[in-house]
Specification:
Largest sheet: 5 strands, mixed
Number of helices: 5
CATH architecture: 2-Layer Sandwich
Strand content: 15-25%
CATH topology: Transcription Regulator spoIIAA
Order of helices and strands: EEHEHHEHEH
Distance between the termini: 27 Å
Helix content: 40-55%
Protein name: STAS/SEC14 domain-containing protein
Organism: Paenibacillus borealis
Strand order of the largest sheet: 1-2-3-4-5
CATH class: Alpha Beta
């Protein structure tokens, strides 16, 4: 997980999460939120993950969507190449879950959002 304070953006590159990984992931996610200002954007890139989330992990990660909303998320995109990933990310992030097949396209979309406010 990387936080770019200048871009007011968090980038998550996931290569597979287990139930044991979730508490530290949520802790890192909460720390990232404290570094960002309302209107921040986020990218979750799961294109490098060999497997989708187990139902247990997906359930435990669900609060991250609420955490992002509570901290003023302005837009969130995900990069995925699997229909199951697309479904899971939509479930986790709801209205903010916009899908793009490449990181470059996702980043361009988020840049267009930040340019709308200018």
């Amino acid at each position: 997980m990387e936080v770019n304070v200048q871009k007011n953006q968090v980038v998550v590159k996931a290569f597979g999460l287990t139930e044991e990984d979730v508490p530290s992931y949520i802790s890192d996610f909460e720390k990232a939120m404290k570094q960002l200002k309302p209107g921040f954007t986020g990218v979750t890139d799961v294109s490098g993950s060999a497997s989708v989330l187990s139902p247990e992990v997906a359930a435990k990660l669900a609060p991250t969507g609420d955490i992002a909303v509570a901290n003023g998320v302005g837009g969130w995109v995900y990069v995925a190449n699997s229909p199951v990933w697309k479904m899971q990310m939509k479930r986790l992030f709801g209205q903010f879950a916009v899908h793009y097949p490449t990181f470059e396209e996702a980043d361009a979309y988020l840049q267009s959002l930040s340019n709308l406010g200018k």
